[in-house]
């Protein structure tokens, strides 16, 4: 089954446009391809955000982060011994 690549919001007031666009982008999570904003009446707009899939080679990969042990290598060796002293 094919996944829908666009999300839409209808009748958005002008002052809420930036918040709605940010929410829709966070909701979808893929690379944004096109944002369409159409004025309906008065100061209301329809927003449509179309995304495309990120290629597997460019997709984010979880990375392990290692932090340095304060005090250098000697303290790290002592901490790894397992004794209470």
What this model shows, in words?
- With 85 residues, this protein is an alpha+beta fold.
- The protein has a domain at 1-54.
- It is built from two helices and three strands, in the order βαββα.
- It is elongated, with a radius of gyration of 24 Å.
Strand order of the largest sheet: 1-3-2
What is the succession of H and E elements?
EHEEH
Number of helices: 2
What characterizes the major β-sheet?
A: 3 strands, antiparallel
The counted number of beta strands is 3
Helix content: 10-25%
Proportion of residues in extended strands: 25-35%
Describe the structure using short key phrases.
elongated; 33% strand; alpha+beta; 2 helices; 3-stranded antiparallel beta sheet; 85 residues
Secondary-structure topology with pairs:
Elements: E1 6-13, H1 17-28, E2 31-41, E3 44-52, H2 73-81
Antiparallel strand pairs: 1-3, 2-3
Brief digest:
By secondary structure, this protein is an alpha+beta fold. The protein has helices spanning 17-28, 73-81, and strands spanning 6-13, 31-41, 44-52. The chain contains 2 helices and 3 strands; from the N terminus they run E-H-E-E-H.
